Amino acid sequence: MRSFDYNNSDMEKLVSVFSEALSQIFEETGIKIIDIEDSELPSTRKNEVITSIGFTGKIKGTFILISTEKVAKKISDKMLSNMQISANPKKFGPMNRAAIGEIANQISGRAMTILSTNNIECDITPPTMLTGNNIRIINTDTGVYRSKMVKIEGGILYIVIGMKN
After folding, report:
1. Which residue of 22, 24, 30, 54 pairs with 125 in a disulfide if CB–CB is 3.0 to 4.6 A?
2. What's the domain range around 135?
3. Averaged in consecutive runs of 10 residues, what is the pLDDT profile of the chain (165 residues)?
């Protein structure tokens, strides 16, 4: 893989890297992916959980994981149960938030590892999480963004990958 030129072809390669990283991490966690497909950004919904991780280096951008609270709880409960940790069974609490931040961190870290095997060195920033209703994602820079809908057992989540100059 050559250097990134911030064009659509390179953006598709970056999306492919993050999709592969997500697939690997979910498989290792025991989360079954049914399908990953191109998608528009999701419309705003109630009880959303949005986790964002930036990356810098040879390429700069953002990885965003978007789901409903219900789907985020299912994902985080699975991750926590693998570590023999139990979270509040009724609500999306602090342990669930930490687990979602960690799974986004693992996906981003794995993507950076895949990129580094192709001589593209990047680092990630700590995760930022937003929860609430009617959260809108607005592109405030001139970067290129792509989103994918990820169907898993028990729901749908979205990943958004952004690359900027």
Report:
1. 54
2. 8-164
3. 61 93 96 94 78 93 93 92 81 92 96 94 94 77 83 94 84
